[in-house]
């Protein structure tokens, strides 16, 4: 399983979350506390918004703790909205194209989790990707396929409905293929202005996801960046965190019919 951070607020340097805290993302890449595996060394990526409409991306296959370019970049780049991710592969190759975040136009996406027995439905899941977006399918992960498939359900207009419909489509494919393994996921989506962070599973055992908001910023993380546990709130199972503009954060339940039939 992977670890990730989504940030939105006053502009800060990326290293303030990626490298500096006691439980920074780089620290979590070496020893995660709440993941299925403790080491997340199968690549990493950061994506940030600056003065252009589309995000900048830096992704690499080296472990985050051993890449001096990551530390230098995070020390220099300042942003009011960015994603950062360290990867633990669940099967697909360790390759730059499989590192998160993924982007299409102004949209950016990252994921932690796994579609049970993904290989059994990989071809059918790829078929859900709209033809005019299939050229963006550069890697082999279920994460990228989920992201691109969501555009077929109106991702640009209603992200929550689109991701819910995408998960429902995947659950249907799993049921048709008689897959018994669960679908477990947390994922974050942004258009450069708003953030949507989802925590969902088909068996009630979704990966961990927390958030903290101050008067200046919002952080959504796979696990807390410090030992101040009381200041972090857990995103409930099968819910989505919605942070639009300057509005207060909303936690909404996702559609119950998504739950995979026994």
How is the topology of this model organized?
Blueprint: E1 3-13, H1 15-18, H2 25-30, E2 44-48, E3 56-60, H3 68-76, E4 78-86, E5 102-104, E6 107-115, H4 122-126, H5 142-150, H6 159-176, E7 183-190, E8 195-201, E9 210-213, E10 217-221, E11 233-234, E12 239-243, E13 250-253
Antiparallel strand pairs: 1-4, 1-10, 2-3, 2-4, 5-6, 6-7, 7-8, 8-12, 9-10, 9-11, 12-13
Give a description of the structure.
The protein is α+β, with helices and mostly antiparallel strands. The protein has helices at 15-18, 25-30, 68-76, 122-126, 142-150, 159-176, and strands at 3-13, 44-48, 56-60, 78-86, 102-104, 107-115, 183-190, 195-201, 210-213, 217-221, 233-234, 239-243, 250-253. Helices cover 19% and strands 29% of the residues. It has a seven-stranded antiparallel beta sheet. A six-stranded antiparallel beta sheet has the order 5-6-7-8-12-13. Mean pLDDT is 93; it is low at 256-262.
CATH architecture: 4-Layer Sandwich
Structural class by SSE content:
alpha+beta
Kindly report the spatial arrangement of strands forming the biggest sheet: 3-2-4-1-10-9-11
Q: What gap, in angstroms, lies between the N and C termini?
A: 24 Å
β-strand percent reads: 25-35%
Q: Over all CA atoms, what is the radius of gyration? A: 17 Å
| Beta strand count | 13
Q: Which fold does the CATH topology refer to?
A: Glutamine Phosphoribosylpyrophosphate, subunit 1, domain 1
- The helicity comes to 10-25%
Q: Give the class-level CATH name.
A: Alpha Beta
Averaging pLDDT over every residue, what do you get?
93
Largest sheet: 7 strands, antiparallel
Q: Number of DSSP helices?
A: 6
């Amino acid at each position: 399983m992977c670890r990730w951070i989504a940030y939105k607020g006053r502009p800060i340097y990326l290293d303030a979350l990626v490298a500096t805290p006691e439980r920074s993302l780089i620290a979590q890449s070496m020893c995660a506390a709440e993941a299925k595996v403790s080491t997340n060394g199968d690549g990493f990526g950061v994506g940030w918004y600056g003065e252009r409409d589309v995000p900048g991306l830096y992704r690499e296959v080296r472990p985050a703790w051993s890449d001096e370019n990551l530390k230098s970049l995070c020390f220099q780049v300042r942003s009011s909205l960015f994603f950062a991710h360290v990867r633990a592969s669940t099967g697909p190759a360790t390759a730059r194209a499989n590192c998160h975040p993924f982007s299409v136009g102004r949209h950016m996406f990252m994921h932690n989790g796994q579609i049970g027995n993904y290989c059994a439905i990989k071809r059918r899941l790829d078929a859900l990707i709209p033809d005019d977006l299939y050229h963006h399918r550069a890697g082999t992960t279920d994460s990228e396929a989920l992201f691109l498939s969501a555009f077929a359900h109106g991702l640009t207009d209603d992200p929550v409905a689109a991701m819910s419909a995408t998960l429902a489509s995947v659950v249907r494919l799993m049921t048709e293929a008689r897959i018994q393994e669960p679908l477990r996921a947390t994922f974050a989506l942004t258009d450069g202005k708003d953030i949507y962070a989802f925590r969902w599973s088909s068996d009630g055992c979704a990966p961990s996801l927390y958030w903290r908001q101050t008067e200046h910023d919002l952080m959504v993380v796979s696990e807390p960046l410090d030992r101040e546990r009381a200041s972090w709130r857990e995103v409930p199972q099968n819910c989505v965190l919605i942070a639009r503009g300057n509005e207060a954060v909303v936690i909404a339940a996702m559609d119950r019919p998504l739950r995979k039939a026994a």
